[in-house]
Specification:
single chain, Recoverin, domain 1, 8% strand, three-stranded antiparallel beta sheet, mainly alpha, 210 residues, two-stranded antiparallel sheet
């Protein structure tokens, strides 16, 4: 049996909260997930370390996080994120809004079918920079190629074995080549939020999330 000391050595180090995460009472992991969602749609801008996100993509980024806003919420959020109607939002107000949604989300709440469809198209289309009229727009399964492309978009160096494990975790071990169906993707969203599952969560042996 492992001693307390040896068990502690094998444990993953706890992520340290940034000042921004502390201000909004979210964990370092939650902040990382928000930053990754923002980065998928971000565009460079002088003076903005994280870039800016076009306001037209704010809802899609929040859907990817499993935090879909209602129409009324989105209107209010955009007025906060982009008060001057410049057409883009910076990182800090985006994080603040996502933190509010995290705190307000009731246990057991989940996305509706339209939100699942939108998120599935987002993942199989690899974000706003993909070809919306191409084959991926009508993809029926989420594949290893989709995950590789998303990782490249985010400039994340992710081992292919980890991406394969993510697919196997979602489809119950049915095989990497089979991909992830929309029904399986929906189950992932309802359990944990699409972004929280697919974007680089720590995995233990045999692809089980830890």
């Amino acid at each position: 049996m492992a001693t307390g000391s040896s068990a502690a050595k094998g444990a993953l180090p706890k992520e340290r909260q940034s000042k921004l995460a502390k201000e909004h009472n979210i964990s370092a992991r939650e902040e990382r997930e928000i930053k990754e969602a923002f980065a998928l749609f971000a565009e460079p801008m002088d003076g903005e370390k994280e870039g800016v996100i076009p306001t037209k993509d704010v809802r899609r980024a929040m859907v990817a996080l499993g935090l879909p806003p209602s129409k009324a919420e989105l209107k209010e959020f955009l007025s906060i994120m982009d008060p001057d109607d410049d057409g883009h939002a910076t990182y800090e107000p985006f994080l603040a809004i996502c933190a509010l949604k995290l705190h307000a989300r009731a246990d057991g709440d989940g996305p509706d079918s339209a939100e699942v469809d939108e998120a599935f198209r987002l993942f199989t289309g690899a974000g706003s920079n993909s070809n919306p009229g191409g084959a991926d727009a009508a993809a029926e399964v989420l594949t290893l190629a989709h995950l590789k492309r998303i990782a490249m978009t985010l400039k994340q160096d992710v081992d292919e074995a980890l991406l394969r494990d993510m697919i196997l975790e979602a489809n119950g071990g049915a095989g990497v080549g089979r991909g992830v169906s929309k029904a399986e993707f929906e189950e992932v969203m309802r359990r944990a939020g699409a972004w929280k599952f697919f974007f680089f969560r720590p995995f233990g042996s045999r692809g089980k999330a830890v």
